[in-house]
Amino acid sequence: MKQPVFSAQNLTKTYTSGEVEVRALRGVDLEIQAGEVVVLLGPSGSGKSTLLNIMGGIDHATSGRLLFGTQELTALGDRGLTAYRRRHVGFVFQFYNLVPSLTAYENVALVTEIADRPMRPEEALALVGLEARMAHFPAQLSGGEQQRVAIARAIAKRPEVLLCDEPTGALDSKTGILVIDALLSANVELGATTLIITHNASIQDVADRVLFFADGKIARIQKNKARRKAAGLSW
Predict the structure, then answer these.
(1) Mean pLDDT of the chain
(2) Exposed end of the chain (fewer CB within 10 Å): N or C?
(3) Range from 51-55, 94-98, 100-104 carrying the lowest mean pLDDT
(4) Could you tell me the CATH number of the domain that includes residue 113?
């Protein structure tokens, strides 16, 4: 059996504010395989974003182990996690975080200038269907187009892992479909293991597996046997 991309054993995270402790993760065990699309569903405060942040090297676990391949992320300090994020992870968030004074092309080029083996910015933008909008500034783009620029920026460094926290949360349903299609195209073309946090239960149909979260734990796992793997998907 191949080495999982991620393997977590009894992963916990506790936030402390004065005398108050919030247990965001309560002993999570999971394995994520290479190339999977995994959707994380659950109410606010159930632990989804906390897990994604630890997997992305943005946050530290309180206890337990998390491995990326054979590398133990939970044993790394800040410098090691920074190198891990830079080399291996692409992030897509609910809000696009584009530089308003730069064109779509230039926003993507920011990442390609520091990546080890980047694709050309125009190649990344073409992958999300924005080759005709490369010279436009964020203010000249719709919300869905801005999110697709953010996806192009995330995938331009050819990440092994694509972590998406509510990527359609600020979009209407029709535009959200285009954004999910762009993420799935990146998964197919690059083979990037893709994790998507969402409150939208309809998105679960695009996943290989769905992890349902409750009270800091994975309450249930659903497998989808026949997810379509083709670029240019639509629901």
Answers:
(1) 89
(2) N
(3) 94-98
(4) 3.40.50.300
